[in-house]
Amino acid sequence: MQTMSQQQHEQDDFNSAARRKRTRWILVAHLLIVATFFAASFIWGKFA
Amino acid sequence: MSTEIAHETAHDEHHDHGPAKGLMRWVTTTNHKDIGTLYLWLSFIMLLYGGAMAMVIRLELFQPGLQWVEPHFFNQMTTMHGLVMVFGAIMPAFVGLANWLLPMMIGAPDMALPRMNNWSFWILPFAFAMLASTTFMEGGAPAFGWTFYAPLSTTFAPASTDFFIFAVHLMGISSVMGSINIIATILNMRAPGMTLMKMPLFVWTWLITAYLLIAVMPVLAGAVTMMLTDRHFGTSFFDAAGGGDPVMFQHIFWFFGHPEVYIMILPAFGVISAIIPTFARKPLFGYSSMVYASASIAILSFMVWAHHMFTTGMPVAGELYFMYATILISVPTGVKVFNWVTTMWKGSMTFETPMLFALGFIVMFTIGGFSGLMLGVAPVDTQYHDTYFVVAHFHYVLVTGALYSIIAAFYYWVPKWTGHMYDERLGKIHFWWSTIAVNVLFFPQHFVGLAGMPRRIPDYALQFAEFNQISSIGGFAFGLAQVFFLYIVIKTIRGGEKATDRVWEGATGLEFEQLPSPPPYHSFNEPPPVK
Known about the structure:
The complex is a heterodimer of chains A (48) and B (531). Chain A is an all-alpha fold and 48 residues long.
């Protein structure tokens, strides 16, 4: 059972597992946006 | 305060290590300050390279007739000048500022993805080396203008265009990686208490800019990929003979190109929003309206691209829509200008070099904004389109706007970065020299443009001679002023009066209040207290 100060420390830690997981999700989500816009430009260009 | 900072520094040094030694420090670094420095130096080198090409352009235009270079080489110069300045000078400079400043401003130890940060920088020297090498290839460098419209860039392009395409892909990959890094850092690495609406405006404007980049760089990549397949793999995206549409290229290019303009100016708004309050000694007027105005500008930037294409033959309803949408952007932009002016109102103002460049930005960027409004009015754009009026307009936006803000940012933060004050007298000389020269350079271009001188030509009618001569003299003087700036930069890095931790009397923000000058190699290993 963590104390409140331990929980706070973990929340503040720049290298906490939760923070790294969030970074990975942000990376993947934004790469998907990039892929979508790249594909959309071809659809707009009307593949001929 | 300084006692606290000294204590913090000693604490940091206890489990800190400095930079590696020698060249490998710069090749392998994952430190945001080192990578920021690399970006800033790269952008300065590219500024001088792009500037050298501008000198060739102004030399040829000094007199009517052909004097110095062949028309085809002149076209290569205008094309490469534009590409190098946009992708090599302005954009990397802002990424360099972001790298140096964002972690320190939000209380983070570094960027969220430091290895990707190293990668996104080190792609760029190769991309620009490849782009620059096209000048020495058979058929010469790309000569189709920085907008690389098809079919000039497809059917009629030189062989070197493939190298250009690959270079643009590399720049795009670098920008996308840099942007995702910035978004991850801002969304996930802020110190406790640093809520979104407490972030400095520079952080906000970069967050918004990063979203613009990840939306439009893939579209640019798509455009050059379609160019590549049209050139070599038998597709006809932009070839009417095969069922394609060359005008479609312009639509796709400007869907990237117009937000690109805001990519180059939104971080500048953030810089100016940091400098004006410091030297007016008042908090920024209308912080939240500045945030919403930045977001509004970004959203609107996606909806106005075809104002670059009024002369391609659009339905009147389309022209009206794009005209009104374009003019609408002046509302949030006006909010920003009024907020900066109101911040200064009744402030205890002083006029150190960063403030001079910031004030120069407000006045001259606004001139560029007004000429932009004129160009956005569809019926009159028919006269201005592809004239020197357009050249004058976007140079007021990009030189006295974006570049001035980068120079202002250098003078404002360099004492924090290096621990040395720059020479104030030299800084003021740099400002006045640049400001007089830049207006001599670009203001007459409005007149020759209104009188009908087209852009991208090496020769012109006799009646444009005087204004072109004046413009060239201003160009040479402005170019020389930036060589003088290089001297100031080197002098400041090598030594100078010791900067205090706060640097400026009115400075606020974590980088000034919580870190010494210069900051330790690794700052904020522990989250700083945020008020």
